[in-house]
Amino acid sequence: MIDAHAHVEMFKKEVSSIIMESKEELKAIVDSITEYRKFHVWKNWELLKPYFGFIFPTLGFAPNEARRGNWEKVKKVEDFIWQHKDEIVAVGEIGLDYYYTQTEKERENQRAIFDYFLGVAEELKLPVVIHARDAERIAFEMVQRRGLKAYFHSYSGDIDVAKEIVENDHFIGINTGIVFIPEIENVTRALEIESLLVETDAPYMSPFKGEKNKPQYIKVAIERISEIKEIGFDEVEQITERNTLEFFRLNLG
């Protein structure tokens, strides 16, 4: 199994033990090293660097950080992305989150910074990992204008938009929240498995109440997709793994 989206760095002092546990069940983790509040990309890069080869990093700028409109920080993150352009498998997560924005100015900041990093990905010829909440269509249209290949992670939005996304050769991420969020289950029912990646978004979206999510819990999402689609666990795992390898162009050696 491959976890297509996690934030292992957020486990802080538990990082080493979490990765050791994950290696027992997973082939790889794609980790979204994203600038957000106290989680600075340069610090988290160094924290995870010893595990690269099992962890495949992306670099991005979270929309809930982007709403602040701190362009000095944007430039710093952009410079860091350029420094590590040959080591990352995508730019992200980046995007729009209108759920938490309080003002139109915050949304303008998000859109401007999102588009800026789309431009960086375009220059680098890298795919993008998209966080879109209550703004899925706008994010999709912005990606389309740039002609980029995109992965809309942890998708729980409009089904018609999801269908347009996959019809345009992008992927949708189904996370472990599928066991308690009806919208994720509805999206899963509506789409072909060939359009899906599976992820935990660990330490968020735990399928077990009162417990942090872990990358190895990806099997819970695969099991639920298997039940919904009425096909075997192994087939779901193989197809979604192939999708992940294709999108991120992973070389597992």
Element pattern in H and E: EHEHEHHEHEHEHEHEHH
Structural class: alpha/beta
Widest sheet: strand order? 4-5-6-7-8
Question: What proportion of the residues is helical, as a percent range?
Answer: 40-55%
In short:
This protein is an alpha/beta fold and 253 residues long. It has ten helices and eight strands.
Mind explaining what this structure looks like?
- By secondary structure, the protein is α/β, with parallel strands linked by helices.
- The protein is 44% helix and 18% strand.
- It has helices spanning 15-23, 41-48, 63-66, 71-83, 104-124, 136-146, 159-167, 182-190, 218-229, 233-248; strands at 2-6, 28-35, 55-61, 91-97, 128-133, 150-152, 171-175, 196-199.
- The protein has a five-stranded parallel β-sheet with strand order 4-5-6-7-8. It has a three-stranded parallel β-sheet with strand order 1-2-3.
- It is globular.
Layout of secondary structure:
Elements: E1 2-6, H1 15-23, E2 28-35, H2 41-48, E3 55-61, H3 63-66, H4 71-83, E4 91-97, H5 104-124, E5 128-133, H6 136-146, E6 150-152, H7 159-167, E7 171-175, H8 182-190, E8 196-199, H9 218-229, H10 233-248
Parallel strand pairs: 1-2, 2-3, 4-5, 5-6, 6-7, 7-8
Helix pairs in contact: 4-5, 9-10
List keywords for this structure.
253 residues; alpha/beta; five-stranded parallel β-sheet; three-stranded parallel β-sheet; 10 helices; 44% helix; globular
